Amino acid sequence: MKKILLFSILSFSSITSFAQMKEDIKMFPKPENGQVQKVIRVEPRENENDYMVEIFVGKKTTVDACNNHFLLGKVEAKDLQGWGYTYYDFTSDGNIAGTLKACIDNKQVEKVVYAQSEKLRYNSRLPIVIYTPEGYEVNYRIWSASTEVKTAE
């Protein structure tokens, strides 16, 4: 009986949190044709001003193994009219650039090639909503400030 009750509570809480997750993005525009909407939600933390979210938009492709490659594209912040929220639109034609070292073995590898990353304010109360062309992925990492404060000389 206890197992059934525990399962019921866990199921209800996961359904509730899923519904809340859908609720916090309903005001954002639907993706246009050929676009997808990606959403990042970060955990609440003490002193959120001491953190930042760095987002990376990338595309899986085959490139040579010896050069450094990057995706040509940009992230543009847009205002959600009437709400005061910001969402992000990544645009790219899919072109990839890189260094021009001569690759002796000409070995090809499949990897995700990223565009210039973007650092955003950490805010656990609002999701980070990003629109990308289909076939692109969005990754992120959390940056934190040191607690040590130094004085300039």
TrEMBL record:
GO terms for molecular function: serine-type endopeptidase inhibitor activity. InterPro entries: Ecotin_sf, Prot_inh_ecotin. The keyword Coiled coil does not apply. Pfam families: Ecotin. Residues 1-19 form the signal peptide. It comes from the Bacteria. Keywords: Signal. Gene3D superfamilies: Ecotin. Belongs to the protease inhibitor I11 (ecotin) family. This is Ecotin.
